[in-house]
């Protein structure tokens, strides 16, 4: 399928890369279908999700475990059931990234990760009940604390 996008132009989107947010993403509840756009650099933890039906809507994502090695949370039984998750190997986790003009302030939302069931392609942004994480976790600070 060819998808029109504001940021990437016309792109070919494979059906297996389309994920469904049944409840949408908070703030965009009426947008349900997104395509995952992988980074050309296979070593990069960053990728994007592009709204299939809204060319101007895309989010930068990161594998939070690549940045914060001790990131840890538990999904509620309700979330596990809603996404049809049967085992942890079916789950992909992403964090939405905010890239400000000052790139040193790039941040990721660890409070509300994007959870994808890679088998059935159901996805949701889950707001964690924990106070351990925030919506603005600075990526450069985390990398510096690890000596990177």
Automatic annotation (TrEMBL):
Subcellular location, record wording: Cytoplasm
Keywords: Bacterial flagellum biogenesis, Cell projection, Chaperone, Cilium, Cytoplasm, Flagellum, Translation regulation
Entry keyword Cytoplasm: yes
UniProt key word Cytoplasm: yes
GO (cellular component) term, any one: cytoplasm
UniProt record, GO biological process: bacterial-type flagellum assembly; regulation of translation
Pfam families for the chain: FliW
PANTHER family membership: FLAGELLAR ASSEMBLY FACTOR FLIW
Assembly with partners or alone: Interacts with translational regulator CsrA and flagellin(s).
Family to which this protein belongs: Belongs to the FliW family.
Summary of the function given for this chain in its UniProt record: Acts as an anti-CsrA protein, binds CsrA and prevents it from repressing translation of its target genes, one of which is flagellin. Binds to flagellin and participates in the assembly of the flagellum.
Protein name: Flagellar assembly factor FliW
